[in-house]
């Protein structure tokens, strides 16, 4: 049963014809972890933001459907969409430094959403916050709840953000490069934590990253993006055994593998990039033709 | 052919052509032109009094006299001509006081924020102590000591408002000073002052420009306040503040004596503040 | 082969401004607690550690952006530990640095050409224009980029401008401080390959700081592992990966997620 189904999602820069997303389709089942992989600017973050309704104002969706638990979000009014997303989805952001308000204590930042939007009584919200902080293995949750963000380390802040994301028992979480800003040892702890929490709570997870190593540890399926277009979508085991698309193979060859230095850190060959760009140009031509016809 | 342009559409986002810039720039340019050409275009002599022509309404109201387009005040002086001549004082004060305040305040702020150390300690303490003086009292005291006149007004504004620039520019200079491109300049062997001027200044300039135009607007208001309380220039030359003070007493019989200089004052100050914003939007490469 | 750098018992402490009392100096935090190693000419040294290990501080001490509080730093036999800026300036031509964040290390209001030309002008080079274009060629950027502003380039391209700026002076030594940490996998590979090529072509000595050991493997001949301001391992790359001596090195290696679903990653 697919929990999130995106069909033919296209978006462009407002006021121009510059495409940001080209006909993106993907499905995430309930409780599944789906990776969105690609270089910077490939559009992977944009998809996550489109699902959560937090696209920048300079980007507008031109067509497509985003079905969350059976309801097409794009067919709702903005207010309904916000309410539905607030109740069912959450975000684990990339930068733990800027994602927390530096002038407020941690406690209210976790309970706010529960109290204001989901209308929980304060005592219940605080108990839940304490529970979650313990679940993400933060020692002394009471002290942390009274602390300010700058008093905590980057790894701790990311744990808090993870706890916040799971607070309202969302059915879908979008994790936007949650470990990119972290040390490799802290990254390992955080990834394992996310995987554990996801399994325990049964949440569907859309995991945006550019690191194929991370994908192989956390995801069950993935979509590879280039220039806002899905270039390959498959299960993780199949992908790492033998990626189907030339671009995917090139990405894999570029990923550092200390066990096999000769077969890693090879930049994506120009021929491969040219081929993908040709694919995209062909797609744009058919798309324009049908748009003009229809 | 591989697309190496690195284009990700970022350069395609264009800001709306500066309506702010056109409107504010337009008003100020018109005003400046009118002020410069006042001796030739003013319909009447601004100082000529004729009690028989007192309190005439503006030309579109019954009872008006042709040639006195915006009416006359209680002494029969033409409002429009007085506004035009008043603009001269307002704009001179704005430009001179604004620029001098900016140069002094921004320089001190830049030095304090970038060089830090004892330079910062001295300048910051000076700012703190200075700002503790009540500005209005300070300026009245200053003028009482130096006597009224254009130089006194300008000096009063500079002496009080340089701290505004210094504080803000110091904060920005500190923030920019922590950036890696400053460290890079140091690694390349650039000296401190050279780094301050070449690397920091361009990044602080947008803020300085916005503050400068704001300060010009403030200078116009301060002059108007001082001439309202008759502490401005000593001659009979018309000032907007003075006109507003006079118009206050006859507001019911001759509203035009108060309203027109007030509107002109308002539009001028508004234009100054919007000019800064408009210039920033138009000329800052980062926002383009 | 002569040593380009000799670091002896390097100590560096910085004042902890958060604990500064009202009167008096702030207490100092020791960041580097006695670092010693040598860097021969032509070697590529990897400096690895987590946050708080002091690796960035060590790098900055080596290019004298920071002044050590103890020990010595010798560059080509000359003691630069406490040299004043006027004496340091002529030496600065010989050691350069590339920074981590390409957005904050390039002045956003200077054009690319200006950014690369600045150090050249400072050290009195005559044919600045030609050298700027030459530097752009070396890093594989089109010459037309000289007229662009940093925000008109992608992250990988900005990082290459940083490299162009560093090599324009033809230094003997370059410190690369986490220069690929913010880049995606293909940009990272491009930048590393570029660096490898430049080291060979220009005969550079390189110190490459990173928190990621897997990036170090290809590039570096020797690895220095730092933990909390101390050297815990100093060995040839092959040794470090085959048989790491320090527990922390082992921890770093184990943390790396290989692109392999079957990796044992406990």
Q: Summarize this, please?
A:
Chain B has 288 residues and is mainly α. In chain B, 69% of the residues lie in helices and 0% in strands.
Most extensive interface between two protein chains, with residue counts: A-C, 39 and 37 residues
SSE ordering of chain A:
EEEHEEHEHHHHHEHEHEEHHH
Classified in CATH, the superfamily of the largest domain in chain C is P-loop containing nucleotide triphosphate hydrolases
Question: Could you say what the CATH topology of the largest domain in chain C is called?
Answer: Rossmann fold
For the biggest sheet of chain C, the summary is: 6 strands, mixed
Q: What is the C-alpha radius of gyration of chain C, as a whole number of Å?
A: 19 Å
Instruction: Measure the end-to-end span of chain C.
Output: 43 Å
Q: Determine the strand fraction of chain A and express it as a percent band.
A: 15-25%
Helix percentage of chain A:
40-55%
Number of strands of chain A: 10
Give the CATH topology of chain A: Rossmann fold
Distance between the termini of chain A: 32 Å
What is the secondary structure topology, with strand pairs?
The complex is a heterotrimer of chains A (294), B (288) and C (266).
Chain A: E1 2-13, E2 19-29, E3 33-38, H1 44-52, E4 59-68, E5 71-72, H2 78-88, E6 89-92, H3 96-99, H4 106-117, H5 122-135, H6 141-146, H7 154-166, E7 172-176, H8 184-201, E8 204-209, H9 212-218, E9 221-226, E10 229-235, H10 236-241, H11 246-254, H12 270-293
Parallel strand pairs in A: 3-8, 3-9, 6-7, 7-8
Antiparallel strand pairs in A: 1-2, 1-4, 4-5, 9-10
Chain B: H1 19-36, H2 38-41, H3 79-115, H4 117-131, H5 135-146, H6 150-177, H7 180-188, H8 192-228, H9 240-249, H10 256-283
Chain C: E1 3-15, E2 28-40, E3 44-48, H1 55-62, E4 70-75, E5 78-79, H2 85-91, E6 95-98, H3 112-122, H4 128-138, H5 155-168, E7 173-177, H6 185-202, E8 205-210, H7 213-219, E9 222-227, E10 230-236, H8 237-242, H9 247-255
Parallel strand pairs in C: 3-8, 3-9, 6-7, 7-8
Antiparallel strand pairs in C: 1-2, 1-4, 4-5, 9-10
């Amino acid at each position: 049963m697919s929990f999130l189904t995106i069909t033919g999602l296209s978006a462009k820069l407002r006021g121009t014809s510059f495409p940001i997303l080209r006909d993106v389709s993907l499905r995430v089942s309930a409780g599944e972890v789906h990776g969105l992989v690609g270089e910077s600017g490939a559009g992977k973050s944009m998809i996550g933001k489109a699902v959560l309704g937090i696209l920048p104002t300079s980007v507008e969706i031109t067509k497509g459907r985003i079905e969350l638990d059976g309801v097409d979000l794009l067919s709702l009014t903005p207010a309904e969409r916000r309410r539905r997303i607030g109740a069912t989805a959450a975000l684990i952001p990339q930068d733990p430094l800027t994602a927390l308000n530096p002038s407020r204590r941690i406690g209210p930042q976790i309970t706010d959403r529960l109290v204001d939007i989901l209308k929980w009584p304060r005592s219940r919200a605080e108990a839940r916050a304490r529970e979650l902080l313990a679940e993400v293995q933060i020692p002394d949750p009471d002290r942390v709840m009274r602390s300010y963000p700058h008093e905590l380390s980057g790894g701790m802040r990311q744990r808090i953000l993870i706890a916040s994301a799971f607070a309202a028992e969302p059915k879908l979480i979008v994790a936007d490069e949650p470990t990119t800003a972290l040390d490799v040892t802290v990254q390992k702890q955080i990834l394992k934590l996310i995987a554990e929490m996801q399994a325990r709570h049964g949440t569907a997870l859309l995991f945006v990253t550019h690191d194929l190593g991370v994908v192989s540890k956390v995801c069950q399926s993935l979509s590879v993006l280039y220039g806002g277009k899905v270039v390959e979508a498959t299960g993780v085991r199949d992908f790492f055994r033998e990626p189907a698309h030339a671009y995917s193979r090139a990405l894999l060859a570029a990923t550092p593998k200390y066990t096999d230095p000769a077969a890693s850190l090879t930049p994506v060959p120009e021929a491969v990039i040219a081929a993908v760009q040709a694919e995209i140009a062909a797609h744009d031509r058919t798309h324009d033709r049908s748009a003009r016809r229809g | 052919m591989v697309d190496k342009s690195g284009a990700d559409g970022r350069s395609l986002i264009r800001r709306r052509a500066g309506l702010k810039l056109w409107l504010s720039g337009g008003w100020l340019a018109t005003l400046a032109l009118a002020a410069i050409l006042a001796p030739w275009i003013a319909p009447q002599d601004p100082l000529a009094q004729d009690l028989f022509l007192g309190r005439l309404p503006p030309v579109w109201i019954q009872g008006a006299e042709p040639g006195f387009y915006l009416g006359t005040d209680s002494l029969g002086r033409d409002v429009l001509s007085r506004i035009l001549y008043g603009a001269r004082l307002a704009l001179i004060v704005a430009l001179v006081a604004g620029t001098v305040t900016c140069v002094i305040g921004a320089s001190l702020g830049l030095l304090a924020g970038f060089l830090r150390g004892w330079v910062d300690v001295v300048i910051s303490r000076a700012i703190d102590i200075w700002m503790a003086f009540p500005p209005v009292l300070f300026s009245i005291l200053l003028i009482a000591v130096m006597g009224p006149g254009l130089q006194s007004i300008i000096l009063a504004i500079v002496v009080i408002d340089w701290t505004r620039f210094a504080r803000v520019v110091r904060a920005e200079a500190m923030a920019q000073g922590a950036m890696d491109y400053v460290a890079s300049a140091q690694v390349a062997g650039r000296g401190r002052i050279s780094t301050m001027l070449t690397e920091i200044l361009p990044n602080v300039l947008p803020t300085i420009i916005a503050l400068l135009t704001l300060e010009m607007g403030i200078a116009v208001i301060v002059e108007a306040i001082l001439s309202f309380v008759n502490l401005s220039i000593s001659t009979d030359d018309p000032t907007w503040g003075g006109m507003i003070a006079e118009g206050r007493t006859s507001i019911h019989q001759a509203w035009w004596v108060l309203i027109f200089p007030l509107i002109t004052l308002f539009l001028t100050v508004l234009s100054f503040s919007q000019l800064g914003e408009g210039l920033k939007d138009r000329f800052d490469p980062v926002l383009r | 082969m002569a040593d380009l750098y000799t670091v002896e018992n390097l100590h560096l402490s910085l004042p902890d401004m958060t604990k500064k009392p009202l009167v008096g100096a702030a207490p100092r935090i020791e960041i580097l607690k006695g670092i010693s190693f040598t860097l021969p000419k032509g070697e590529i040294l990897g400096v690895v550690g987590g946050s708080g290990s002091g690796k960035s501080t060590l790098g900055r001490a080596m290019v004298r952006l920071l002044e050590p509080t103890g020990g010595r730093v010798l560059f080509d036999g000359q003691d630069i530990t406490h040299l004043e800026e006027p004496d340091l300036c002529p030496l600065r031509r010989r050691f350069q640095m590339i920074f981590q964040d390409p957005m904050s290390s390039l002045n956003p209001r200077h054009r690319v050409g200006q950014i690369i030309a600045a150090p050249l002008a400072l050290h009195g080079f005559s044919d600045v224009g030609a050298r700027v274009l030459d530097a752009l060629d070396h890093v594989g950027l089109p010459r037309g980029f000289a007229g662009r502003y940093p925000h008109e380039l992608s992250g990988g391209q900005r990082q290459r401008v940083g490299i162009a700026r560093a090599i324009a002076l033809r230094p003997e030594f370059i410190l690369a401080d986490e220069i690929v940490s913010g880049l995606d996998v293909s940009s990272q590979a491009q930048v590393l390959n570029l660096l490898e090529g430049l080291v060979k072509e220009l005969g550079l000595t390189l110190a490459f700081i990173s928190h990621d050991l897997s990036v170090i493997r290809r590039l570096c001949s020797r690895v220095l592992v730092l933990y909390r301001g101390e050297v815990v391992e100093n060995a040839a790359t092959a040794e470090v990966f085959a048989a790491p001596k320090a527990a922390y090195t082992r921890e770093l290696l184990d943390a790396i997620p290989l692109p392999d679903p079957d990796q044992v990653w406990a």
